[in-house]
Amino acid sequence: MNSLMMTAAVAAFAFTLSATPAAAQGSVAPVTMVGSACPSGYGQGSTAQKSRPNPNMCYPRGSDSPSVYVTSGKCAAGYRKDFGYCTDKADGAVYTPPTFGSITKASAFDRCPVGYHTSEPDVMKCVSYDYAAGKQPATRAKKGGACASNEIDEWGLWCTSKLTKLTRKEAEQEAVADVNHLFPRDGKGGNQGADYMNTPGIVGIFGAAGANSSGASSSSKSGGGSETAAAPANPNCTSSSSTGAALGGAIGGDAGAALGSMLGGLGKKKKKAGC
Fold first, then answer.
1. Residue 258 in 3-state DSSP?
2. How many angstroms separate the CA atoms of 136 and 163, rounded?
3. Are 45 and 61 in contact (CB under 8 A)?
4. Which of 158, 178, 244, 265 could form a disulfide with 154 if both were Cys (CB 3.0 to 4.6 A apart)?
């Protein structure tokens, strides 16, 4: 091989090395979930599904799923941002989260009932993620009058059954998404505040936070089990959990959901009079 050919070969090899890392970052494979959303063409895992058992991972939905990777910075050439991911899916493709059991709200800034969160594309809708599909308790708009004895009055807006297949964690995950999707829009987390651990629905079904560590749903209790109900937390009692929810909501979106969830688990409740 003469010197000119060798120089050309070395140059081509060097170009390949410099171009490979950026293109090789993405792949069509399970990827760590960022916040509470998956990239377009991917779905959240569930312990109930053998093919995608990890709820903290996003799994390709099919052969047309794009190549993706997680990033907090700029995307490599050929990739574009899709929430906290970089994807090679063509521009103009908008991710639409899967929705189940969509119900309509009376006000865009009202909180959703237990098992639901405010839709980002349509704030008048309450929707759920796939892990909650079919597990939510039956819910109806209150529209005056009292809720039945086997129902929970949620903020005077909803009458919700005490029977559900949701776990407390799943109910709180939906409530965190509800707060984070409302907080950036009105600055306070919705007309009913930013609490996600002790909403009327969660307290009515599972009891106050910390009172029931089993995480079991009330579906196994006969007659709805009113003994699990507890008085809502004193609004003057603050905790690191509510602070975490507020801070997470202030940031908004997927990063907010993640931050709020992490901060919500730090520390113990501060003691105040009447708390």
1. helix
2. 9
3. no
4. 158
Q: What is the pLDDT of residues 13-72, one digit of tens each?
A: 444 443 334 445 789 999 998 877 788 888 888 877 788 888 889 999 887 889 999 988
- C-alpha count within 13 angstroms, C-beta hemisphere, residue 170: 23
Q: Which of 67, 121, 71, 70 is nearest to 98 (CA)?
A: 121
pTM: 0.46
- Which residue in the block uniquely carries the two structure tokens 């109930």? 48
CA dist 230 and 204 (Å) reads 6
Q: Which residues contact 63 (CB under 8 A, 6 or more apart)?
A: none
Burial of 96-133, coded b for 16+ CB within 10 Å and e otherwise, reads: ebebbbebebeeeebbbbbbbbbbbeebebbbbbbbbe
Single-letter code of the amino acid located at 149: S
* Closest listed residue to residue 111, CA positions, set 203, 197, 201, 192: 192
CA 164 to the chain's CA centroid: 19
Residue whose pair of structure tokens reads 């709805």 in the numeric block: 224
3-state secondary structure of 32: strand
**Residue 150 vs residue 236, higher pLDDT:** 150
**Exposure of 242 by Cβ count < 10 A (0-12 exposed, 13-18 middle, 19+ buried)?**
buried
CA 49 to CA 203: how far, in whole Å? 28
Rg of the chain (C-alpha set): 23
Ramachandran sector of residue 136 (left: φ over 0; alpha: ψ -120 to 50; beta: rest) = beta
Q: How distant, in Å, are the alpha carbons of 60, 84, 125, 209, 245 from that of 230?
A: 41, 38, 28, 10, 21
CA atoms within 13 A on the CB side of 76: 16
Q: Which residues pair with 34 in a beta bridge?
A: 37
